[in-house]
């Protein structure tokens, strides 16, 4: 521990349980001295996550379904007030939208509502979060990260509409970084290798994906949430002071292989 986040306050979105990538990021940021406010999706998830938030001594936690704009605005304004109108960082670890049928078979068969929901939940929510946090970040500057996946760059079997959503998310990272750089707000993404979490369990044949990843990856092993959290610490702290608009792969080199 080195107090890299001492005096920094931020919002973590997307903890569903103790396996969530967002949870390991939260633990690491807390260890480094950050003050944390959380949002969680719904009452069912609340049962699992509220004990975690209490354990980590969260500043606050709020229910927020990011498809509800009124709730989104109210919660971000409330968190802004709680954090004394200063937000130093945002962790956006939210993905969802596709129907189960659309996470297998052909992308060609994607349904309209599945397509639109995936874009809304997995892409627009990052734009909206930065829009709403901007008034609390613009004075001092800050940093935001989202989580993307290699399926946004190359075709991964069954990932389908989520791959297309991740491509749009990665492009949004660059547009947001361009918009916010003047205000000292940095916008980046981490692209981890596959990790067995709640979200990943919805993807058909995920275990085949893990096996293939392990075989092909130069480092020959799976990625752990803690390893993603270490890169999140880099991107959210002053260690990456001049890094923005980047997609940082935390995948043991998988993306460089042919
Ligand atoms: P997870 O299931 O723990 O997290 C996904 C989160 O999205 C959950 O907390 C869920 O509540 C939230 N969410 C979905 N719809 C929502 C809504 N309408 N309103 C509010 N929240 C909503 O799984 P995870 O693997 O930790 O996923 C976090 C991020 O990491 C996602 O963006 C995912 O695509 C990305 N990612 C995961 C992997 C992997 O293999 N697990 C690899 C690369 C990228």
Walk me through what this model shows.
The chain has 258 residues and is α/β, with parallel strands linked by helices. It has a single domain (9-248), classed as Rossmann fold. The chain is 42% helix and 14% strand. It has helices at residues 21-31, 43-55, 69-82, 112-137, 160-180, 206-216, 225-236; strands at 9-13, 35-40, 60-63, 89-92, 142-147, 185-192, 247-250. β5, α5 and β6 (185-192) form a beta-alpha-beta unit. The N and C termini lie far apart (37 Å). Nicotinamide-adenine-dinucleotide (NAD) binds next to α1. Its EC number is 1.3.1.9. Pathway: Lipid metabolism.
Quickly list its features:
single chain; 258 residues; alpha/beta; Rossmann fold; seven-stranded parallel β-sheet; 7 helices; globular; binds nicotinamide-adenine-dinucleotide; fatty acid biosynthesis
Strand order of the largest sheet: 3-2-1-4-5-6-7
| CATH homologous superfamily classification | NAD(P)-binding Rossmann-like Domain
Say what oligomer this is.
Answer: single chain
How many helix segments?
A: 7
């Amino acid at each position: 521990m080195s107090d890299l986040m001492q005096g920094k306050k931020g919002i973590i979105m997307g903890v569903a349980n103790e396996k969530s990538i967002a949870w390991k990021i939260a633990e690491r940021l807390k260890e480094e001295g950050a003050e944390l406010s959380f949002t969680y999706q719904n009452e069912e998830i609340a049962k699992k996550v509220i004990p975690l938030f209490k354990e980590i001594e969260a500043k606050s936690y709020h229910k927020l379904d990011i498809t509800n704009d009124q709730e989104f605005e109210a919660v971000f304004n409330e968190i802004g007030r709680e954090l004394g109108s200063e937000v130093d960082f945002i962790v956006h670890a939210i993905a969802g939208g596709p129907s189960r049928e659309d996470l297998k078979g052909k992308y060609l068969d994607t349904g309209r509502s599945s397509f639109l929901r995936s874009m809304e939940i997995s892409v627009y929510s990052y734009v909206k979060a930065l829009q709403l946090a901007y008034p609390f970040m613009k004075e001092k500057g800050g940093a935001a990260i989202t989580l993307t996946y290699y399926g946004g760059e190359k075709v991964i079997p069954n990932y389908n509409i989520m791959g297309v959503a991740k491509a749009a998310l990665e492009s949004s990272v660059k547009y947001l970084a361009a918009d916010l750089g003047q205000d000292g707000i940095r916008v980046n993404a981490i692209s981890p290798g596959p990790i067995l979490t709640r979200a990943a369990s919805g993807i058909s044949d995920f275990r085949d994906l893990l096996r293939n990843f392990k075989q092909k990856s130069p480092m020959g092993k799976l990625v752990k949430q803690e390893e993603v959290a270490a890169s999140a610490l880099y991107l959210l702290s002053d260690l990456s002071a001049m890094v923005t608009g980047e997609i940082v792969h935390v995948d043991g080199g998988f993306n460089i292989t042919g």
